[in-house]
Give the backbone structure.
Amino acid sequence: MDELEYFRPKDLSEALRTAESAQGAFKFIAGGTNVIPDMRSETLAPRLLIDLGVLDDLRYIRDERGTIAIGALTTISQILASDAIREKVPLLFAAAGRLGSPLTRNRATIGGNLADASPCADTALPLLVMEATVHTARPRGTRRDIPMDRFFLGPNRTALAENEIITEITFPKPGASERGSFIKLGLRNAMAIAVASVAVQLDLRGRTCRKARIAFGSVAPTPMRAAGTEKNLEGKDIDERLIRECSLLVQEEILPISDIRGSAEYRKMAAAALFRRAVQEAVSGGGE
């Protein structure tokens, strides 16, 4: 490995100026739970690390009149310790609790989990179904708001420019009639990379689905919304026949691959089974 430089900016502006002057030979680092392993395996070889971990003004959770705002450097453990998340956003709370080990959760940040753009990113699924927005900053004071369903472009690829930093994630607070469930299937436990995962958020009046949002992980090049399945649920009474019908649609929408954790065919069957369970839990109000 070539000589590596390390820089710890005192604020966001200094971080962005440094990134602009580095001209592509750098990598932002927050918790380091993805970057450091990638450097050890030599799949990543930056000449400069810009450490964002000390920018404490990007570390917060706010309940703001119907909107939840989370700073990009908020750790997964801080999300789990938040009363606002546990009580008002149980879907994100459940996904955060399934992310890695306690040691990983103490270091990993929500912004880093999204920026890494893994197809199995645990926090991506609840944020997709809650129709979150990713807020960013770029050099010279420019900022962007990126809808979550336009953020992921491919495996480890996002809509972020090279010198762009996630600053905040916001989403509407779930309403009283909304019910959700997050389920992750790993080969061992929460510390395992997901073979398949699903998040379901339903707006229900009795058993009638007024609005459906469904997202899957590890079954496509990116975390993905299942738009066709969503549409097929909406405006209908949810019963076993409809759930079986939609589970077949799920298998048509996803695009899994075969790897050491499971074949594409297994992932299709697993995703359909997880979907059925998640919808049943959401309808019964017993989701994770």
